[in-house]
Amino acid sequence: MVTKLQRRTPGLRKLHLLRARNGSKSVKRSSIILDALLYIQKLKLKLQELQREHLNLLAIKNKYLCLMKHDQIPKEVKVEKTGEGFLVRVICKKEGHMLVSILEAFDEMGLNVVQARVSCNNFFAMEAITVAQDPQGTDVKNVTQAVLKALEREGG
């Protein structure tokens, strides 16, 4: 015959392993199981977040590869109002001195560049945060038109 202690030992070992795995500080069996369920839910949420991030990165990669394959980079200018300034995003073919033309357009409009990121490996891409010296005289439409004119002027 098997004693009561011998029957309980495997269950207690499993409970101890479960407690160690999820970092539970509880002693009660029900609390350890609830902590384990909570731990599993957190892992599921982390996995879903990583899957979403992976899909986003794949979409960006596919778009980039498609643009590189066709060598057709659309001219894209997006301007958003952010507080007292503007967030300007530009993507286009690399032709001439695009950055200089855009910065000259900003200067003509009275926009100061606070922060900018520029890439021109295979195409020209820029993201800039600008602040207007005279906030009343500038709006999103004016900034967009000025950037498009600068790109046309430089691109021919």
Automatic annotation (TrEMBL):
Residues 33-60 form a coiled coil. GO terms for cellular component: nucleus. Residues 76-151 form the Plant bHLH transcription factor ACT-like domain. It is found in: Nucleus. It holds the Pfam family bHLH-TF_ACT-like_plant. Signal peptide: none annotated. InterPro entries: bHLH-TF_ACT-like_plant, TF_AMS/ICE1/BHLH6-like. Keywords: Coiled coil, DNA-binding, Nucleus. One of its GO terms (molecular function) is DNA-binding transcription factor activity. Its main location: nucleus. This is Plant bHLH transcription factor ACT-like domain-containing protein.
